Amino acid sequence: MSFSVADRVILVTGGGTGIGAWATEAFVKGGAKVYITGRRESKLTDVVGKMDQIAPGKTIPFPCDLGKEEDIDKLTEFIKSKEERLDVLVNNAGPFYVDTVDEAHDPTKGMDQKCPFPLAFSPADAWKEQFAVTTWAPYTLTLKLIPLLAAAAKLGDGRGSVIQISSIAAKFWNPYWSIPAYQASKAGQEHTSNILASKLYTFGIRVNTVSPGSYDTDANPSFHEAAMSHPSNNERIPLGRSGGADDIIGPILFFASGASKYVTGQRLDVDGGVMLVANGTNKIAPYAQDMESTLKA
């Protein structure tokens, strides 16, 4: 059994920031060749610059918008022109849409009763973009890369691995959070992961899901009071803190390596225990302390 990713060819979408950038660094340090994508070329350039100090020429950027089929086609053709196989595909890219909660978007406007939780209308275009990049794109990109993934799978040792980076939001319905488009799209991504796993095992391709909880990233910055990674929420996370790079790269390396060669169709929450308390108890909420006091009264 080996956790090594040496000499593996890997594609990481959303590789310019956050978990995608952390995974890229772990892969490069492990001896892999890594292609990274993202909409912001400057972010990709920054990551490549850092990775070249570790292993020159091992990180190749390809700017694209995965919400557009023509960009997915350009990406797959680029990879196919460079490689005969793809050992690992990490589907990590995805926007993070938050509802605008104000009077203009309030569905209870004019009613005597007001909802004590954030509730808002949101534009169709926001949901379309969220689902296009988070749910449709990983499914479509995986399908278009089947020939390269299957070629890798024939070599054995866990190659031909698809890793879906989802979120605990897929199973998270705590009423205090106003991210329904994100939550629904992640649930869709996880369901398509199982669909892919159930079909692609015939090629030897494995599909597994890593679902992070709270991590200090661009989308969840610890300095922002409304972010889950804000220190004020640490006491609400069973293990007492948000996660960091070292917490998430281990599971990703597991699914990318031969150590997981007998694993497919699985989901792993890497959340410090958040899902033990997130739903029903309302502990993961801005006013958790007040609610607990009320319930005890």
UniProtKB/TrEMBL annotation:
Keywords: NADP, Oxidoreductase. GO terms for molecular function: oxidoreductase activity. It comes from the Eukaryota. InterPro entries: NAD(P)-bd_dom_sf (IPR036291), SDR_fam (IPR002347), Sec_Metab_Biosynth_SDR (IPR052178). The keyword S-adenosyl-L-methionine does not apply. Gene3D superfamilies: NAD(P)-binding Rossmann-like Domain. SUPFAM superfamilies: NAD(P)-binding Rossmann-fold domains. Belongs to the short-chain dehydrogenases/reductases (SDR) family. This is NAD(P)-binding protein. It comes from Schizophyllum amplum.
